[in-house]
C-alpha cells in the first residue's frame, strides 16, 4: 500500500487586531493509508473541529467549542461534511480527467474563510482550491470573479462567473454569516484565543559544519518575525526561513537557519532577532549536542519537527509545492468543482 506525506496548506498571516475563521478540506485518491476526505476548522489558526471519512463524524478539538455548542451543532457539521465528501470525490475525478490522469495518488484541496479586524471593523473573505499542491481556482471577492492559473480550471471559471446569483450569495456569506460565526467563536474561546505567550529562543547546531538554527517556540499568537544581524547590521545572505508550525499545546514554533563557516562565525558577531507582540528577543550563543541542557528532540531533529508536530496537531497534512495557497466551512461554501 502506498503512503504519502501531506503538508499543511499555508495560512493567512494573522496580524495584530486581525482574527480569522478558516476551513480546509482535503480529498485524496489512490491506494494510500490516509482518509479519503478530511475537514479542519480553525479560529485564529487554532484547530477547533475535525472530520474525516473514516470516522464519519465532526468532533471538537478544543474545550471552548465543546462547552458552548450542543449535539445539534455537531449533527449539522457532520451532515455538511458528509455532503462535502461526496462533492470532493467527484471533484478529484473531474480534475484527474482534465489533467489526463487515470490513476495514482492525487489531492484536491479547498481553503476558505473570513477575516475581521477588531480595531477597524474591516472584513474580508477568501476561497481557493488546489490540485496536487498547485493553485487551481481562486475567488476574488472585490471583483466578484473566479480565476484559474491553469487551462484545466477554465471551464469551471466560465460557468461560475456566469452565475451571478451564486457569486452574490458567496459575497453575502463571507461578509455576514462567516463574520458572525467568527465573532461567536472568539467569544466562546476568548480565554485561550486572547492569551499572549512569549517565545523561547535558542540557537542550535548539530556540528560545526551544520547550519545554525534559530528556533523560536511556545509563543502565541502566531505573528512573529525572525531575522539575523551580522556585526550590528541586518543580514540576509545564506538565510532560510521555515513555515510556522503549531505545537500540541496550542502555541506555535518557527525556525530560521543561517549557513556560515566556523571561522566566519568566530570572527563576526551573528545575532538572531525574534520579534513578537512588540517585544524583541535576541540570541547569539549556540547550543550544541554536547550541552545536556538542550532537548535531544530539538537538537537531533530540527528538520523533522516540521513534519511531526503538524501531524500530531492537525491530524492530516497537505503537500504544498508553492507558497501563497490560502484556506474555508461547509455551509455556504458550495464546494462542487464538478460543474
UniProtKB/TrEMBL annotation:
Gene3D superfamilies: Immunoglobulins, MHC class I-like antigen recognition-like. One of its GO terms (cellular component) is extracellular space. CDD domains: IgC1_MHC_I_alpha3. InterPro entries: Ig-like_dom, Ig-like_dom_sf, Ig-like_fold, Ig/MHC_CS, Ig_C1-set, MHC_class-I_related, MHC_I-like_Ag-recog, MHC_I-like_Ag-recog_sf. Residues 199-287 form the Ig-like domain. Residues 1-16 form the signal peptide. The chain crosses the membrane at residues 294-319. It comes from the Eukaryota. Keywords: Glycoprotein, Immunoglobulin domain, Membrane, Signal, Transmembrane, Transmembrane helix. One of its GO terms (biological process) is immune response. Belongs to the MHC class I family. This is MHC class I antigen. It comes from Ctenopharyngodon idella. The lineage of its organism: Eukaryota, Metazoa, Chordata, Craniata, Vertebrata. The gene is Citd-UBA.
Amino acid at each position: 500500500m502506498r503512503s504519502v506525506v501531506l503538508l499543511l496548506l499555508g495560512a493567512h498571516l494573522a496580524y495584530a487586531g486581525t482574527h480569522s475563521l478558516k476551513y480546509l478540506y482535503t480529498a485524496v485518491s489512490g491506494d494510500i493509508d490516509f482518509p479519503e476526505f478530511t475537514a479542519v476548522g480553525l479560529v485564529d489558526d487554532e484547530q477547533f473541529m475535525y472530520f474525516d471519512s473514516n470516522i464519519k463524524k465532526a468532533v471538537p478539538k478544543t474545550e471552548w467549542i465543546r462547552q458552548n455548542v450542543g449535539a445539534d451543532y455537531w449533527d449539522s457539521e457532520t451532515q455538511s461534511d458528509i455532503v462535502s465528501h461526496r462533492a470532493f470525490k467527484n471533484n478529484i475525478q473531474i480534475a484527474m480527467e482534465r489533467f489526463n490522469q487515470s490513476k495514482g495518488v492525487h489531492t484536491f484541496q479547498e481553503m476558505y474563510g473570513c477575516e475581521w479586524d477588531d480595531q477597524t471593523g474591516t472584513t474580508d473573505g477568501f476561497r481557493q482550491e488546489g490540485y496536487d499542491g498547485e493553485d487551481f481556482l481562486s475567488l476574488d471577492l472585490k471583483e466578484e470573479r473566479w480565476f484559474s492559473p491553469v487551462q484545466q480550471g477554465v471551464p469551471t471559471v466560465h460557468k461560475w462567473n456566469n452565475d451571478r446569483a451564486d457569486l452574490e450569495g458567496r459575497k453575502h456569506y463571507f461578509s455576514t454569516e462567516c463574520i458572525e460565526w467568527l465573532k461567536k467563536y472568539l467569544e466562546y474561546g476568548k480565554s485561550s484565543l486572547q492569551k499572549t505567550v512569549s517565545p523561547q529562543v535558542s540557537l542550535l547546531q548539530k556540528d560545526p559544519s551544520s547550519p545554525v538554527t534559530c528556533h523560536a517556540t511556545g509563543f502565541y499568537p502566531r505573528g512573529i518575525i525572525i531575522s539575523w544581524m551580522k556585526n550590528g547590521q541586518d543580514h540576509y545572505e545564506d538565510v532560510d526561513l521555515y513555515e510556522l508550525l503549531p505545537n500540541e499545546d496550542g502555541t506555535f514554533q518557527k525556525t530560521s537557519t543561517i549557513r556560515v563557516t566556523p571561522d566566519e562565525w568566530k570572527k563576526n558577531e551573528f545575532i538572531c532577532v525574534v520579534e513578537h507582540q512588540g517585544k524583541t528577543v535576541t540570541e547569539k550563543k549556540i547550543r550544541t549536542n554536547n550541552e545536556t541542557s538542550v532537548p535531544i528532540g530539538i537538537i537531533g531533529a530540527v528538520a523533522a519537527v516540521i513534519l511531526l508536530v503538524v501531524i500530531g496537531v492537525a491530524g492530516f497534512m497537505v503537500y504544498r509545492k508553492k507558497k501563497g495557497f490560502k484556506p474555508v466551512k461547509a455551509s455556504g461554501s458550495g464546494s462542487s468543482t464538478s460543474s
